[in-house]
Design brief:
Radius of gyration: 23 Å
Order of helices and strands: HHHHHHHHHHHHHHHH
Shape: globular
Structural class: mainly alpha
Length: 324
């Protein structure tokens, strides 16, 4: 029905026909029958968000086939929005509850491009709903919990906020064996642990301490020492221990890239290797994570080597032997 004939055609319908027409037309507000251009614009918005907030990830995913590339950037935008709801909101508890409700309400998809694109990706790639729930549970912990007694406790948090992203990515990239699941979990923990070690000072200012309290105690450290931000021998020994663990997790996780479809390996490998390099920067600057934020300067120079390792699958040959 074009707009020019709208009044004429409406006059043509009887009262009961008009009511039924309105009822039928209301279906066009559902996500399944939204105009194609609305979904296309939603994907474009997610591309913009990825490019704005993570130039490295945007670049690393650029070699993926167009459909997978768009989908993985939608996943990034979805996770970014969820994180912003928890960390960037004036009333995070209420806003998170609204966000969770909106995720399950198709009527909201027409008003939010991220929700619209994410729903399409989730259904298209059959991403398990449980992974989304685990992600939301993990991120919601930041609203109620700001200390972790043991590394086991911390690992469960890392799974919720990071490993779940890898597990969802697997469904977009495609994988050849369920053995990939264990590697994805381990890589997520390594990535989040790197975040935690890099952001000790920033997290402390926000009232959070993710370092395992028992391990701090084992190295003779207290929360008062974190507040002071002194880099002494106790702190260096503690950080050497934490960084060694994180690097071991990367070493054990990277061979899992071989289970991914070849056209998605580079994106995962780049994320892993560039994040692992943050640990080198922390070491180079004498474990000072209080007065500076560790980063990697030579990302572009590293990418050709990462590309070769990803596509030649040399990570499989780096798998540590059992018992070592």
């Amino acid at each position: 029905m074009n707009k020019g004939n709208d009044k004429i055609e409406k006059a043509f319908y009887s009262q009961w026909e008009s009511r039924l027409l309105s009822k039928a037309m209301s279906a066009f507000h559902s996500v399944d029958v939204l105009p194609v251009h609305a979904l296309r614009e939603a994907y474009r918005e997610c591309e913009k968000i990825t490019r704005l907030h993570s130039h490295t990830f945007y670049m690393a995913t650029s070699l993926m086939p167009p459909e997978k590339r768009r989908a993985i950037r939608v996943l990034y935008a979805f996770c970014r929005r969820t994180d912003d709801v928890v960390d960037g909101s004036q009333n995070p508890q209420v806003d998170l509850e609204v966000w969770v409700r909106n995720l399950k309400d198709p009527r909201q998809f027409a008003h939010d491009p991220i929700l619209l694109a994410w729903d399409d990706v989730r259904r298209r790639y059959r991403i398990p709903e449980q992974y989304v729930e685990h992600l939301l549970e993990g991120m919601s912990q930041d609203l109620t919990k700001n200390r972790y007694e043991s590394f086991d406790d911390l690992a469960h948090y890392c799974y919720g906020v990071a490993s779940t992203v890898g597990l969802m990515s697997m469904h977009i990239i495609e994988y050849s064996s369920l053995e990939a699941v264990g590697y994805a979990i381990k890589l997520g923990v390594a990535l989040q642990l790197t975040n935690i070690l890099r952001d000790v000072g920033e997290d402390w200012q926000r009232g959070r301490l993710y370092l395992p309290l028992r391990e701090l105690e084992e190295f003779g450290l207290t929360e008062a020492d974190i507040e002071k931000g002194d880099v002494d021998e106790r702190w260096r020994a503690f950080m050497r221990f934490q960084i060694a663990r994180a690097k071991r997790l990367y070493q054990e996780a990277l061979p899992g890239i071989g289970y991914l479809h070849i056209d998605g390996r580079f994106a995962v490998a780049a994320a892993a290797e560039l994040y692992r390099a943050i640990l080198d920067d922390i070491e180079f600057h004498d474990y000072d994570v209080f007065s500076r934020r560790a980063h990697v300067r030579d990302k572009l120079r590293r990418l050709p080597g990462i590309w070769w390792r990803a596509y030649s699958n040399t990570y499989r040959r780096q798998l540590p032997r059992r018992g070592k």
